[in-house]
Design the sequence.
């Protein structure tokens, strides 16, 4: 018996590098993602296959498994399987085939998609109800401890709990969340992929996390805050190191921009939201320093197009994707002009496409 499951990719509309700082984020699941086919086996093994990756792997459920670079992409499902076993969940012997229309390593969270998909499909075989908030946190922990990326919970949360035509307003400190309807009417959401290989992303990401932790540590000497997002702008004067202060200033102001964005979106004021997106990108470029020529070219050239309300990088940065809110009549012009300017500036071909906001992980 074969069963099929789906987990989406995600974009973050605003609130970048905020999740691990305990603030507010506003991600949305996409309609593109990873499909997984589950087929039961009679031995005690799990076969892992992917239509988009040549490497396959068969593991024995009796073995103790650890992260191993030579296992390539299968480290993600292996991490999930290992942790499920550790926590006493039943893991059924099976073959899993992944298929995908979500570009991997492009900041659209294919890693969270494969984690959440694997955990969801394995637990579905024996558990009647899966708590999706627990599932998101479980997968975040696997990415932190097994894979070694010190990410916050945003990606896994969006992949697990996404809802069509809605963004998720998530408080990453409390996991309190609500859905914000996104009505674009004559506008659409564009994803602009730099197609730049992101070899340094994981170490740079962990470096920013360490800088944020350092800012928090300094502020905690004189205040009782638990997360960097609780700090106010004047409080940041206590940070003497200029780099650390710039990082903290991004975090604190970005968190405020999420609050402003939600207010604007509740009134369907897309123009104000667009301006906040532009301010977010500038802050990620100048203060948090996670953009680079490729993302800056896409976002800033996008912002210049008449009919574009706002554009910014999304996800971790250093390559990957930017997003834009653009009037339907301006989409072709944006694709043409930004594509051409991007090629001239970087020598690379970008990919720009319209995206829809879809549901979280589900049975197909
Ligand atoms: P992102 O999460 O932004 O897409 P990551 O570097 O965190 O980028 O995760 C990308 C990795 O996820 C890929 O290098 C690969 O190991 C794995 N992956 C993504 N999609 C698939 C897929 N369809 N099949 C197998 N592995 C995949
Ligand atoms: Mg990832």
Sequence:
């Amino acid at each position: 018996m074969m069963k099929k499951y789906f987990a989406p990719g995600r974009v973050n509309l605003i609130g970048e590098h905020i999740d691990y700082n305990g603030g507010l984020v506003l991600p949305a699941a996409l309609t593109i993602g990873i499909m997984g086919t589950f087929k039961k086996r009679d031995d005690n093994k799990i076969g892992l296959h992917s239509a988009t990756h040549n490497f396959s792997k068969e593991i024995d459920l009796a073995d103790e498994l650890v992260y191993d670079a030579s296992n390539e992409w299968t480290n993600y499902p292996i991490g999930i399987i290992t942790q499920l076993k550790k926590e006493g969940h039943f893991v059924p012997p099976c073959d899993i085939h992944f298929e995908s229309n979500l570009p991997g390593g492009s900041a659209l969270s294919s890693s969270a998609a494969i984690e959440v998909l694997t955990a969801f499909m394995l637990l579905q075989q024996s558990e009647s109800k899966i708590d999706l908030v627990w599932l998101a946190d479980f997968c975040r922990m696997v990415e932190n401890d097994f894979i070694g990326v010190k990410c916050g919970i945003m990606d896994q949360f969006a992949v697990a709990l996404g809802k069509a035509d809605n963004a998720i307003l998530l408080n990453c400190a409390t996991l309190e969340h609500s859905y914000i309807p996104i009505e674009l009417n004559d506008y659409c959401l564009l994803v602009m992929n730099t197609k730049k290989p992101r070899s340094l992303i994981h170490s740079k990401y962990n470096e920013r996390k360490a800088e944020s932790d350092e800012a928090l540590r300094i502020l905690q000497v004189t205040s009782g805050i638990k997360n960097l997002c609780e700090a106010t702008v004047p409080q940041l004067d206590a940070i003497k190191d200029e780099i650390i202060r710039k990082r903290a200033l991004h975090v604190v102001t970005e968190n405020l921009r999420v609050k402003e964005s939600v207010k604007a979106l509740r009134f369907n004021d897309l123009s104000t939201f667009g301006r906040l997106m532009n301010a977010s990108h500038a802050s990620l470029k100048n203060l948090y320093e996670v953009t680079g020529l490729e993302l800056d070219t896409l976002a800033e050239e996008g912002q210049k197009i008449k009919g574009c309300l706002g554009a910014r990088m999304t996800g971790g940065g250093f390559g990957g994707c930017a997003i834009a809110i653009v009037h339907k009549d301006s989409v072709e012009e944006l694709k043409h002009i930004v594509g051409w300017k991007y090629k001239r500036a970087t020598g690379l071909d970008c990919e720009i496409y319209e995206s829809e906001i879809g549901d979280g992980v589900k049975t197909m």
In short: The first helix runs from residue 75 to 86. Residues 34, 50, 52-53, 73, 76, 98, 100, 104-111, 114, 315 surround adenosine-5'-diphosphate (ligand 1) (CB under 6 Å).
